[in-house]
Amino acid sequence: MYLQYKFYASHNHLLFQFQVPPFVVLATSENADQSQQIWMPDTFFQNEKEARRHLIDKPNVLIRIHKNGQILYSVRLSLVLSCPMSLEFYPLDRQNCLIDLASYAYTTQDIKYEWKDTKPIQQKDGLRQSLPSFELQDVVTDYCTSLTNTGEYSCLRTRMVLRREFSYYLLQLYIPSFMLVIVSWVSFWLDKDSVPARVTLGVTTLLTMTTQSSGINAKLPPVSYTKAIDVWIGVCLAFIFGALLEFALVNYAARKDMTQVSQRIRQMKQLPTDGYRPLSASQGRSSFCCRIFVRRYKERSKRIDVVSRLVFPIGYACFNVLYWAVYLM
């Protein structure tokens, strides 16, 4: 990240009575030692990983001494800061990244950092939408003064609230996986004898969903907890795999139906010629709707397909309502 760091300090021995100009600008040198013409605090960033100053074509440093003894020190820095992220709600997550600025050697008895009362942080126009994967929602100032064995050290904290852009994942993951689950239900409307078509459809959607989940997880560090995207992919895989298992159950039921039909034909051939038929065992009472359903779909394999046409979409719709209600709140 790019940061322009400023601080103000007051020195009574630097008072002057010049009317014009209202302040004095000190020249800087490419040699850092020669630029230290006045005392500077030993400020450092606690969560810094890498940092550099801008030196083209001259060091980007500004030092002003005002006639009331106040000093303005401004410098351009490029920093790489550590920001531990919590990915439970990924990719619907919000992250809090910190910038901690403190003195390394001087305790609060020597130096104390304080935020300005008005506009302590100035943001460049368009900064909130400049990040490719996040949107900067808010910037909050705070204090992080720490107490160690060597003393108490003053510290300033900047908290940046970042919201992950969801449109990419909506177009690249959620909508395609949603369509794959729906495509897997097409097998419920195919005839039970269309074995190659139904098997190919189930296996293809399952492999496509597996490949898509592997591509998404390859971009993330391995974590020990379950993410929101893992829940979505896992349930989609379960529904696609369930559609494939449903065909196996349909195929088993169809073979059972064929066996029962063959047994009935043999029993019909063994009936006596005088028209006498043995009484069958009485069946339990069933509801009117169930009797109509059984009469309309006499084959058990067909009944399984018809029930699956309702159970799978209703179950997936309930999951979507629960999923978006939990992770969008």
TrEMBL record:
The chain crosses the membrane at residues 166-190, 231-254, 306-326. GO terms for molecular function: extracellular ligand-gated monoatomic ion channel activity; transmembrane signaling receptor activity. This is Ig-like domain-containing protein. It comes from the Eukaryota. Pfam families: Neur_chan_LBD, Neur_chan_memb. Residues 173-267 form the Neurotransmitter-gated ion-channel transmembrane domain. It comes from Caenorhabditis brenneri (Nematode worm). Keywords: Cell membrane, Ion channel, Ion transport, Membrane, Signal, Transmembrane, Transmembrane helix, Transport. GO terms for cellular component: plasma membrane. PANTHER family: NEUROTRANSMITTER GATED ION CHANNEL. Residues 34-164 form the Neurotransmitter-gated ion-channel ligand-binding domain. Belongs to the ligand-gated ion channel (TC 1.A.9) family. It is a multi-pass membrane protein. It is found in: Cell membrane; Membrane.
